[in-house]
Amino acid sequence: MNPILLFAEYSAVGIAAGGIYALIALGTVVIFKSSQTFNFAMGEMMMLSAYFFYTAAVTFAYGPFVGVVAALIGSVVVALVIERFALRPMMGRPFIAIVMVTFGIGSIIRGLVGIIWGPNDLQSPAILSRAPVMLGSLFIPGKTARAFAIAVLIVGALIVFLRYSRAGIALRAAAADQITAYSMGIDVRRVIAFTWVIAAITGCISGILMANVNSLTPNLGLVALNVLAVIILGGMNSIGGVLVAGLIIGWLESVTGFLLGTEYREITPYVLALLILLVRPSGLFGTAEIERI
Amino acid sequence: MMSRLANNQSVVWAIVLIAVLIALPAVVPRYWVYFAGILGINIIAVHGLNIMTGYTGLLSLGHAAFVGVGAYTVALSQSKLGLPFYLAIPFAGIVAAIMGVAFGLPSLRIRGLYLVIATLAAQFLLNFVFVHWQSVTNGDAGLTVQPATIFGYPLNNETRAYYLILFCDVALTLFAINVIRSRVGRAFIAVRERDRTAEVLGVRIVWYKFVAFALGSFYAGVAGALLAYFNQFVNPEQFGLVLSVFFLSAVIVGGMGSTLGAVLGAVFMTLLPEFLRGGGLAIGGALGFDIASILVPLRETVFGFLIIGFLILEPRGLAQLWKRAQQKFLTPRIAADSSAVGRTRVGTEQPKRSQGSHNGETS
């Protein structure tokens, strides 16, 4: 095959995979924006949702549609419980402590999933068609392409929603200045809980999509660590930035895999994150809220 | 006078503890000695992370990778340079410190999450190097390490290596206590608590962050070096993200910013899986469950609950619980010996954060 064509194909597949990164990153960024909390449990929330989906759709045999609804409800409930009982008591505490709490939550979820569902791979029911999509002469695997379409649709819809809805404006107000927002009648606690709901939804859908493209294991959530690079590149507090950054990271991963060998895929996001830290810590779209000392 | 009395008592207790530890291999089974060795190595690594995260407030998710750098440095300096252990161990510490600073430096100037990301990147990149730089690290298969040799006498079993670890533990614990008591240690705490104020008062924050990061990574490197001599074997699997999180849990459970806490946390977190296994298997056997297959996830769950529980309910960790227990059971006796003035002093001397150095003396 023509190497240029091959490169183009790898690029397309990479960009398609980046859609899911954008979806995961969006959930992380809204939480960060509202409460300066970096949620290291995002990957585990995502993985747990995929297990909810599997349980409703396969174990109880209600089919994929009920599975998605059940997974959405389940993950929203879990996110609200986490916010209420683990994060809210930590309000105002040092940032290290809060980050470690989210790490602890991740550890608990991974452990519980291992206890309940076991360590083996489960085969998630196919909700995406396998039929490949042809872009001209480029061949894109069907599941990846459809997952991309769904992810980008949802990210786009959420970006518009957060831009124009009351809730979105309240979120931006709380992010800009908590005290002022509070005194203007915005319930900052509810805004924070609301961002956890958004994170639950994006995590849930990305989890189900990931389980469909790959398979379902307790390690599914590890992908979410790569999203750190997406968030850094997009700018920590830029909601729109995640879409562009997610696609760039997905593309870079795929292309380095093609050019240097697949083993380099796994470190691409981290090398990139380090470079961004060196060159432009505020990322592509972040406002310069970097505090240098 | 009170404090001198307490001091003398602490020194006596420390000497008793060290004597017990020296006698330990003679009385307990070999498996326990092995376990004590691992525990000693963990204590050193946790001291390092406690200096960075606990005292200075620099959160590192890459501590295990720096431990790995130390271990590989020993393996390679032995086979390529023929360094004896008394040079290889400090050398491993220095190499790890250089690596730590190289990764940490760009983000030490920026507040917040950036250092976390840089150290996480270090964790993955260094592990990648361990696995994929085949010609030097021998990939997944790893490297074998010859035991340390003193005057032609090889430390080739658990008990002999245990004494080397014990020596390093005592030396590095004393060093940590003294660093924290010095000007440098107070600067660390000032940086953690109020960096702006510290700067105004003439503490060079970036420099002290740099020192804390280098020192913490040095400890990690030494721990790795000892691990290499102890296992006589190094491979990449030993130094994953799980281990980094383990060290952080130990710092939190023990009590951030307390040298005694670092020791207690390391002891607690190292022993916990053993208790879980023992208890789990016993309960499972009694009830007819197969606990063995869920031990790993069970451990993760318990670790998670411990981290969150301590952070929410007792942020100063086991060190604080220890202190409270001590006040409850020990102080009345001391107070009875001394004057009424002494008693009120005990009452007002409520432990503040800086009590870590004082605590350390009892360990």
Structure write-up:
The complex is a heterodimer of chains A (293) and B (363). Chain A has helices spanning 3-35, 42-59, 63-87, 95-117, 142-164, 166-176, 178-183, 188-213, 223-234, 241-260, 268-279; strands spanning 133-135, 138-140. Chain A starts with a helix and ends in a 14-residue tail after the last helix. The radius of gyration of chain A is 19 Å and the shape is globular. In chain A, strands 1-2 form a two-stranded antiparallel ribbon. Chain A has a domain at 12-130 and 139-219. With 293 residues, chain A is mainly alpha-helical. Chain B has 363 residues and is mainly alpha-helical. Chain B has a single domain, classed as Orthogonal Bundle (ABC transporter involved in vitamin B12 uptake, BtuC). Chain B has helices at 2-27, 30-55, 63-81, 85-108, 114-132, 134-137, 158-181, 183-193, 195-200, 205-231, 241-254, 259-287, 295-313, 317-329, 331-337, 340-348, 356-360, and strands spanning 143-144, 149-150, 153-154, 233-234. In chain B, the strands form 2 sheets. Chain B has a two-stranded antiparallel ribbon.
Beta fraction of chain A: under 5%
Strand order of the largest sheet of chain A: 1-2
End-to-end distance of chain A: 53 Å
Q: So what's the oligomer here?
A: heterodimer
Query: How many H/I helices of chain A?
Result: 11
Q: How does the major sheet of chain B shape up?
A: 2 strands, antiparallel
Q: How many separate domains make up the residues of chain B?
A: 1
What keyword list fits this structure?
heterodimer, A: 293 residues, mainly alpha, 11 helices, 71% helix, B: 363 residues, two-stranded antiparallel ribbon, 78% helix, 2% strand, globular, disordered C terminus
